[in-house]
Amino acid sequence: MISKGRTMQLRLIAALITLVVISAASIALSADKVPFPRPDSHKGNWSENHGLNAQLNINEAGQSDSACLTCHEKNDCIACHTMRLPRDHNNFWRTRGHGITAGVNRERCLACHRQDYCIRCHNETAPRSHTGAWKSQHCRWCHFAGTRPDDGCGVCHKIAPHTSRPAGHPPIGQQTNCAVCHP
Amino acid sequence: MQRGPLKNLNDRVPLLLGIMLALFLVPSGTSLAASNKQSSEKQPAQAEEASIAVTGYFNARYTFRTAETASGDIARDQDAYGELRIDATTPKTGRYEFHFMGNVRNDLDGNRDLHTYSPFEDIGDTGPDHTVGYLYEAHLDINNPFSRVTQIRMGRQASTRDEPVYFDGIAMDVRPATAMNLTLYGGAGVNFYEIDRSEGDDTVAGAGIDLYPTTSTGISLDYLSVKDERAYLQLTNVQDDLASLKIWQRLTPSVKAIAKFRYQNGEARDLNLRLLGSFPGSGTEFGAGYIRQFTIQDVQSNPLSPFVDVLGQSTPYQSYEIKVRQFFGARYAVDLAYFKKDLIGNDPPGAFNREYSRATAGFEIADLLLRNLSLTLTGDAWKSDDQSFTSGGADIGYSFGKKGNAARINAGTYYSLYKYDYYLQLGERERVRTYYLNVRAPLAKQLSLNVQYEYEQTIEKFQTIRTGIRYDF
Question: Which residues of B fall within a CB distance of 8 Å from A97?
Answer without folding.
Answer: 416, 418, 432
